[in-house]
Design brief:
The protein contains 9 helices and 14 strands. The protein has about 375 residues and is α+β, with helices and mostly antiparallel strands. The structure holds zinc ion.
Length: about 375
């Protein structure tokens, strides 16, 4: 009976940015414009002063926004978010560092005509807050009047720490807000029971056959969309490029494509979730897709089934909860080996052979099920020996 193993825990910091379209009021737009202007002015002014000091005295001046706020001609800088200005200093210092380390050219002035306005502010002592409804987020930013309305088009992952916010105005006139979150990823611990394992054999006919003898098929709805997609794509290829019918058909194909992708991913997500929830160890074959599709010339059916995507989903889902996906070397003779006595048979070389009898012990095997059991046993062996 193999010993149980426990994984060690460790934590790493992951940063993730979320960008949303903002819908500012006229009053907010005015304040954004003022901040963009101050940020650009300060950047150019600091760059100019630093350049002169460098040119005439060979000195790298360390300038701060506070210094500028105190000179009479720049008092108005105090009207905007101080952290936005502090970030200007940091950005400029980075630009100079990159120049001195020969990673970048000498910093350039920012022109108003560049039409790319933005500023970044940091979260300090709860100066930035937000609340969410179904469709909108309402964000409170330093020096910006009221709450900024933001289109909430995708969920933000829970348990993150908001670090900074960047507001930008694109040449189209649209406003965007980008939130930078920090997540502490604690690697999950799970007490793995090697007896609670499953092996999957990617089958020719179905999606896979597992070591419990279940055959899992790709959903029919998905296959149906695939057929329609192929048909509509054929139609498209016969149409005159650029004609209005062609454009119409192209949109139809794109829609079907999106539907097929959605259905396939939904199926793969649910299936991988089910497996990872139920088992501690999942054994799969490490298939070299390219080599395999060339050798056997059925690459299309494999990529349609999404085996590669499926195994990636399995791996990250298992990692997130401390479980194991073990890939078996593609040379491991999972199909050839009798699961009862370990004897190898040459009969299974022919892919059309679905059932075979072991020449040594006489056991009769279903090809895929036998392979799945071998994959499971090999996965458990690998887990327990390393
Ligand atoms: Zn045998």
């Amino acid at each position: 009976m193999p010993l149980r193993k426990t994984k060690k825990t460790s934590a790493e910091i992951i940063r993730k940015a979320y960008k949303f379209q903002a819908v500012p009021t006229e009053e907010q737009k005015a304040m954004f414009a003022q901040t963009f202007g101050c940020v650009r002015y300060l950047y150019n002014r600091m760059l100019d002063d630093k350049s002169k000091a460098y040119k005439y005295f060979g000195e790298n001046l360390n300038l701060t926004p506070a210094w500028y706020k105190h000179i009479s001609c720049c008092r108005w800088l105090a009207d905007v978010d101080a952290l936005a200005l502090a970030n200007v200093q940091l950005n400029l210092n980075t630009a100079f560092q990159n120049f001195f380390n020969k990673r970048a050219k000498y910093p350039k002035f920012k022109k108003k005509s560049d039409h790319h306005d933005s500023y970044t502010t940091n979260v300090v002592n709860g100066n930035i807050s937000y609340r969410t409804s179904d469709k909108y987020m309402y964000v409170t930013l330093p020096k910006i009047p009221g709450e900024l309305m933001v289109k909430n088009h995708r969920p933000v992952k829970q348990d993150g720490k908001l670090k900074s916010v960047t507001v930008s105005r694109e040449p189209s006139g649209k406003y965007y807000i980008s939130f930078l979150f920090e997540y502490t990823k604690v690697k999950a611990v799970h007490d793995i029971d090697p007896d609670n394992a499953i092996g999957l054999d990617m089958s020719m006919r179905s999606f896979y056959v597992d070591s419990d003898g279940n055959e899992v098929d790709s959903p029919h709805a998905y296959l149906h969309v695939q057929d329609r997609l192929a048909r509509e794509q054929r139609k498209l290829s016969h149409m005159k490029k650029g004609s209005s019918n062609y454009q119409k058909q192209k949109r139809k194909v794109a829609k079907l494509h999106a539907k097929a992708t959605y259905q396939r991913n939904d199926f793969l997500h649910k299936l991988s979730r089910k497996l990872v929830d139920a088992y501690d160890i999942v054994g799969i074959e490490d298939l070299d897709m390219k080599g395999m599709s060339q050798a056997l010339n059925f690459g299309k059916s494999i990529s349609d089934k999404g085996w590669g995507r499926f195994t990636r989903m399995l791996v990250y889902k298992a990692e997130a909860c401390g479980k194991r996906v073990i890939k078996i070397d593609k040379w491991f003779p999972s199909s050839k080996m009798c699961r009862e006595c370990g004897c190898l048979s040459k009969k299974t070389k022919d892919l059309s052979v679905r059932e075979w009898t072991c020449p040594h012990c006489g056991a009769t095997h279903n090809r895929d099920y036998n392979a799945a059991v071998n994959i499971k046993n090999e996965a458990v062996r690998i887990y327990c020996t390393c």
